[in-house]
Structure formats: structure tokens, C-alpha cells
Amino acid sequence: MSPVTVSRALAQLVAEGLVVTRPGAGAFKAPPRTAEPAGDTSWQEVALSADGALDVVPRTVDASGVTVCLAAPPPGVLELSGGYLHASLEPERAMAAALARAGRRPGAWGRPPLEGLPELREWFARDIGGAVTAAEVLIASGGQSALATALRALAPPGAPVLVESPTYPGMLAIARATGLRPVPVPVDPDGVKPALLADAFRATGARVFVCQPLFQNPTGAVLAPERRAEVLRIAREAGAFVIEDDYVRRLVHADAGPLPRPLAADDPDGVVVHVGSLTKATSPSFRVAALAARGPVLERLRAIQIVDTFFVPRPLQEAALELVGSPAWPRHLRNLAAELRTRRDTLTGALAHHIPELALPHIPSGGYHLWPRLPDGTDDTTLTAAALRAGVAITPGRPYFSAEAPAAHVRLSFAAVAGTGEILEGVRRLRAACDEVLRPRP
Question: Where residue 4 falls among pLDDT bands split at 50, 70, 90?
Fold first, then answer.
């Protein structure tokens, strides 16, 4: 065995408490650990549920809607549920090279500015466009963290927050965990419906609306040009903020055409708090994102982020700068766009041929998933369980709704599998699950 293998094996044994190492002497068997008597943790049930008379909304934390996209499926199960790129789509070599170069930069392991590296803030500001400047950008540790910071900054516990319906379960989990009350506003293929958004602001008095204007999760909708200014006007008249979760701008498909600018680029009045991330187009572990805002709210965002996380590790920020400034970055995005288009077309074609019962009213030109509607009377969790038994993991639609769901859906991802072959096999297995669940009962 090589010295590296031996070193890693010893480190694993030390971590498990089976071996102790003594410098200059060697490695020795660790003394046996004595079993401690089990304690009584039943008191926590009372402590965790005693929210107090002043709490309007119980601050329960339900991560199930997020976990389904993060947890690896059992061995042999095809992953049509994943929320990240398969390893074959990640720019692994480019990231490794960027991290190696970043680690050699002078001061790369020192403390970064609390707001983030100036050069990285400038890159995100240019990427957003419009009049956004580097001074209005904060570097955050991934989009989820940035969303949590924004919601905590803009709404007090117990307040209503307007959300698209359906919407990203991770955002709903953040809102509920911080004691907020999600209020749904329906979405169609052109994005959120402005008239219903105005009605919701008037009915609830909400001061925050969270939206994904580009390739919305899960519907894939893009906010129509005529609705963009209307959404900003409605929010401005309500004295409210719009949190723009621009989560997959870099996962555009090759046939998408020019993309609309972020809402933040067309917002001179500080209505929009923008969240953008590099994670979806790189790796789940490449957690670098940006929070952009204008006006007094920026200082509140900055203060909450510092209290929560101090700062994003400097080596990761330096690596992000190296990556986006390298020739490999635009090449990766072009290759990714072509591959995502191929995978999307493969999945839509296979569904139309093998499972026509699943309706696809909208086929997106960006993102990594489809949102098929199930036949009336079908239970999405029942189909999800049957699919898992058949060897394919899919995502039930129910967690994407903050209130009662108008119809049953599932979400099918085409980015987390190894290639088109696994997509076709996944649809074949899903067909078997549909035969079990959708067949007429005698």
C-alpha cells in the first residue's frame, strides 16, 4: 500500500476512536470506551413545543421537502429526484485547478473582508447588470443561506410572506422555521399572476414577496416581459420587498435564446433583494452566492449575515474568482447548456411515448426538471413510493405548495442521472410504477 493509503486508514481509525497516535512512537490500539448510561431526553418534547403565548406561528422545522433533493437514493435506484448536477456534468477539473491556484495566492488563507472579496463582488454586480454596483453586493455561503438571511431581515416572526404557488420547498422550510406565515400566489406558464399578487398584498398586509422569475422551481415558468414591471410596481405601492431567487440562470438550455435580465437590474428604488448563486452550475459543495440590495436594507442584511456566519471562507471565494475568470468557465456553461437540452428532450420524448397519462403543459428552456401533472384522483406520494419500489426516485409535488394543492404533480429531474440511458431506464421503471398505481380498480 502507498503511504497515502496508510495515512488515510490511520486517520479513519483515529476518528473512530479505535487507534491513538503518539508522535515519534507510532500508532497504538486505543483503550476500550466504557458505555455511559442512556439519559432521559423526554423533557425536550416539552421544551421544543412550548412556543409561548407571544408566538403567533409555531416555529417547527420540516426539512423533508429539501431532504428528498439532497439525500442519495438507495443503491440501484435511479435518481430522477436530484437537485444538483451529476458528477459527469460538474466542472471538476476546472474547480480543482481553481482551488489549487487559489490556495497559492498570497493571503488566501487569511480573513476576508466581511462583505466578501471586492473582485468577487464586482463580478457578481456585472453579472446582475443594470446599475447594481459592487458596494451593493454581499458574498453569501450558498443560495439557501442567502434566502434565510433575506427572510430574517425583511419580516418579523409571525408576519405573512407572499410566495409563488407552487414554489421551492426549501424556502417554505426557511419561512416556517423563522416563524413566518407563507401565503400562496398562483403561478401560470408566464409566472406569477399580477392581479392575484396585488390582491394578496391588500388582504394580508405582507411586506415581502419571494419569487423565482427565471425557470421557476418547480414549474419552469419565466416571468413574462409585460408582468415584470407590473410585479415591481405592485410591490412598490404595497411598500414591500421582492426577494428574487435567481437560482438557475446558468442552467439555461442551448435552445433558450436571450434571457431576460434579473429584476434587480431594472429596479432603481431598492424594491428587489437579489439572490444569485454559483452552486447549481458547479457542485453542491461549491457554496458561493451573492446577496444584492440597495438602500438601508443592505446594512441589515450585512449585520444578520455577519452574526450568523461571520464570512464565507476566503479560499472558497478565491477559488470562485479563479473559476469564473478562467477560459474553462464559459466552455463549461456552453457544454452544460447543450447537455441539459439533450437530457430534457430525452425525458420529454420518453414520457410522451411511454407515459402519456402524465400531462406536460409546459416544457422549460432552462433548469433541470419537469413538472408533470398526474391524472385526477392520483396520489403523488403513493406514486412516489411505487416508483421507489420499481427502482427510480422521483419527487412528490405536495411539498411545493404552501396550502392545499389544486392538483397532484411530481417533479422529475434530468440532471442528477449519469446520462440519457439512465433517463430512458428511469422512465421504463416509472411506467411500471404507473401501471401499479394508475390501473383501473375492479
Answer: confident
Closest CA to 178 of 298, 61, 67: 61
Beta strands in 65-224 (DSSP E): 78-79, 137-140, 160-165, 181-188, 191-192, 208-211
Phi, psi (deg, nearest 5) at residue 288:
-130, 125
Helix 420-438, helix 380-390: angle, nearest 10: 120
pLDDT in tens, 288-343: 999 999 999 999 999 999 988 888 999 999 999 999 999 999 999 999 999 999 99
Question: CA 341 to CA 260: how far, in whole Å?
Answer: 19
Question: Which stretch of DSSP H or E encloses residue 277?
Answer: strand 272-277
Higher-pLDDT residue of 117 and 43 is: 117
Q: How far apart (Å, rounded) are the C-alpha atoms in residues 442 and 438?
A: 12
What pairs with residue 409 in β-bridges?
373
**CA–CA dist 42, 211 (Å, integer):** 40
Compute the distance between CA of residue 158 and CA of residue 180 in angstroms, rounded to an integer.
Answer: 5
User: How far apart (Å, rounded) are the C-alpha atoms in residues 417 and 245?
Assistant: 25
**Cβ-contact 235, 241 below 8 angstroms:** yes
Which pLDDT tens digit goes with each residue over 347-371? 999 999 999 999 998 999 999 999 9
d(CA 141, CA 149): 10
pLDDT digits (tens, 9 = 90+) for 94-111: 999 999 999 888 888 888
Q: Which residues contact 343 (CB under 8 A, 6 or more apart)?
A: 414, 415, 417, 419, 420, 423
Helices (H) and strands (E) in the chain, counts: 14, 15
DSSP-assigned letter for residue 418:
S
